[in-house]
Protein: Peptidyl-tRNA hydrolase
Organism: Herbihabitans rhizosphaerae
Amino acid sequence: MPEIEGEPVLVVGLGNPGPRYVGNRHNAGFLVLDELAARIGGKFKAHKANAEVLEGRLAGRRVALAKPRSFMNVSGGPVVGTARFFKVTPDRMIVVHDELDIPYGSVRLKLGGGENGHNGLRSITKSLGTKDYYRIRFGVGRPPGRMDPADFVLRDFSPTERKEIAFVIDRCADAVETLLSGGLEAAQNTFHVD
C-alpha cells in the first residue's frame, strides 16, 4: 500500500444503519470499525459525505475511518464522497466486509477481484469505476440448508458465533493494522493460516 506523506488511508466498514441491523452478519464491517475507533481512542462524527468519520493514526499511518450512513446496497456514493474529501485514491482504500464464501471466524485479505454477489462491494466498485481496492473479508460462512443468503446476512450472529465474535473482530482489526504497516503479502502470510 503506497505511503504518501501526510495523506491518509481510507478504511471503510460496511453495514446497514440503524438499531435494527446492529448485530447482523452484514454489519461485520461496522463492528470492526468500532474496534479500530476504540484503538484510536476517538468517536465517529457525522460527515457531509453521508458517512460517520473518524480521523486518527493506526500502525503509524494517518487514517480516516468511515461507516456509510446509507444502506449497504448503495454504499458506493458515501464511500466515493468520503474518498474525494480526503483525496484518497482506490489504491489507498481498505474495505472491511462480511464474506459468505469464507468459514465463520476466518479472515482473508485481497486487492481487487470480484464481488462474489456482495451488493455493497458492487456499489463501491461501480461508483469508483475500479475493483482495485483492498478488502478485509470477515468470514460469516454459508447459510444453513436452503436459507436465502440475503436472509442469512440480515440475521444476527448465532449465540455460538457470539461467543467467538470479539476474537474475530479483533483479528480483522489486527489485519487492517498489519496491512497498513507491512503491506498485503505480510498481512496474508499472517492471517491466511487457518
Q: What stands out?
A: The radius of gyration is 15 Å.
